[in-house]
Amino acid sequence: MGIFKKREVIIDEKSIEDPLLRAIIGYSEIDRKSALEIPVVSSSVDLICNTFAMIPFKLYEETTNDDKKVTKEVDDDRVRIINDDTTDKLDGFQFKKAICEDYLLGKGGYAYIKKIGNNFKGLFYTEDKYITINKNNDPIYKSYDILVNGNTYKDYQFIKLLRNTKDGASGIGLTNEISRALQTAYKRLLYDYDLAVTGGSRKGFIKTNKKLDEKGIEKLKTAWENYYSGTANTVVLNDGMEFQEASNTSRENEINEKNITFNSEIKDIFHIGNSYDDFIKNSIMPIATAFATALNRDFLLEKEKKSYYFAPDTKELFKGSLKERYEAYQIAIKNGFKTRNEIRYMEDDDAIKGLDMINLGLGDVLLNAETGEIYTPNTNKLVKMGENYTENAQNSQENVQNFKNTEDLSQKGINTLGNEKVAKIEENDAKKGGEKNESRS
Fold it and tell me: Which residues contact 19 (CB under 8 A, 6 or more apart)?
């Protein structure tokens, strides 16, 4: 037996009145449920996930025609699966919102790809808590399998939306990345909850010069607990007992200031800026790009990856108010990169015949992008781009030569007229000189 004995201090957590102190003593990693109880975290996650879920993802095909790249939208069942009917119990909006929340707070967003042969049939969202990663130990040639309830799947059988991943199998959620900060905020939330439950009653101590027996202590504790729980309005102190308030006003003020600072820091962590454009650019677009990249990797056939790709359609996010949209449409039409029918399509209006012209400026010269025809309203002429080029060029050269000839003739005419004027002046001067000589004589 050693000389020094280890002293054990046992603290009953239930006996600690202050929940903030109790939370500190009983520290553990914060889970998603507790993190979402923090108002600023819940609102930030909800805002980001709802905004992301609004984005439709479309499939495009890129081809080369006459050494020019041509991109067109492809009508495919996979687009419907992503945006509308996943064939799972979750629809497209719910699916994207759920996978985004797992991306932010969990190990990542996962969705099983239902596939029959080369045909994609559905996307089945799988909560990250059911996902187990079984990976090899090679840091270069990484490989892994995905286990769900004991069943083993290949990595390419799942869409994986991962945040801050190092292995391509799982990511790091904010509950792990800023666990201490979230835990501290959660403790402050418990502290505020305790003040609300007790009606804001101050903590304090009971002082007495008399020694109470165990029965008296139990009665006093019961009366005090009933008072703080709201089931009793008064506590009667016997003679010789005195309540001494534990002043913590300065600490409460400090906690309020930290709450304000924490709210601002959380918005910075989620990249929620002061403007809407900054929010879309810094918070939403990275997630949308990551999801499109995941789709391009596992939701396309190998032979399709050379020319097909998924991309987010963010037009809905940037529509803005009615006035802002119409002003933007006016600029697009005026500068010739949108037709009026394209604008009508964006506003869910029917196309009108004759409004597929592109405004080229130069006195309202209009180009039909499909036929290549150019129409000039001022001259009421319709010509096709590229035709009669040689004839037009020859005519242009003839016009230039005619202009030069005209210019030469004009110059000759000016010279001839000048010479005639000089001779006339000299003749007049000679006549005037003869008249003067006659008058003198």
Answer: 187, 190, 191, 193, 194
Determine what percent of the chain is predicted with pLDDT higher than 90.
37
pLDDT digits (tens, 9 = 90+) for 218-275: 776 776 666 655 555 555 566 556 655 555 555 555 666 777 888 888 888 899 988 8
Whole-angstrom Cα distance, residue 22 to residue 41? 23
Mean pLDDT across the chain: 77
Which residue is associated with the tokens 């009917």? 85
Q: H or E element: which one contains 112?
A: strand 109-116
What residues are paired with 382 via a beta bridge?
Answer: 375
> 3-state DSSP call for residue 11?
coil
Q: Tokens 């929340």 correspond to what residue?
A: 101
Q: From CA 80, how far away is CA 232, in angstroms rounded?
A: 60
Q: Half-sphere exposure of 255 toward its Cβ, with a 13 Å CA cutoff?
A: 16
- Over the stretch 319-367, which tens digit does the pLDDT of each residue have? 766 777 788 888 888 877 788 888 888 777 888 888 888 776 656 677 7
Dihedral of the CA atoms 119, 53, 315, 324 (nearest 10)?
A: 160
For 103-120, the pLDDT digits (tens) are: 999 999 999 999 999 999
In SS3 terms, 249-295 reads as HHHHHHHHHHHHHHHHHHHHHCCCCCCHHHHHHHHHHHHHHHHHHHH
Instruction: Quote the distance between the C-alpha of residue 110 and its chain's center.
Output: 20
- Dihedral sign for Cα 10, 13, 19, 25, please: positive
Beta bridge partners of 429: none
Q: What is the mean pLDDT of residues 406-430?
A: 57
Give me the DSSP letters along 115-163: EETTEEEEEEEE-GGGEEEEE-S-SSS--EEEEETTEEEEGGGEEEE-S
3-class DSSP assignment, residue 29 = coil
Q: What is the pTM of this model?
A: 0.65
132-145 residue pLDDT tens: 999 999 999 999 99
Tally Cβ neighbours within 10 Å of residue 335: 12
Rounded distance between C-alpha atoms, residue 97 and residue 193, angstroms: 30
Please name the amino acid found at residue 47: L
Q: Compute how many other C-beta atoms are within 10 angstroms of the C-beta atom of residue 55.
A: 21
Compute the average pLDDT of residues 81-107: 96
**Residue 335 to residue 331: CA distance in whole angstroms:** 6
- Token readout for 72 is 């067109």
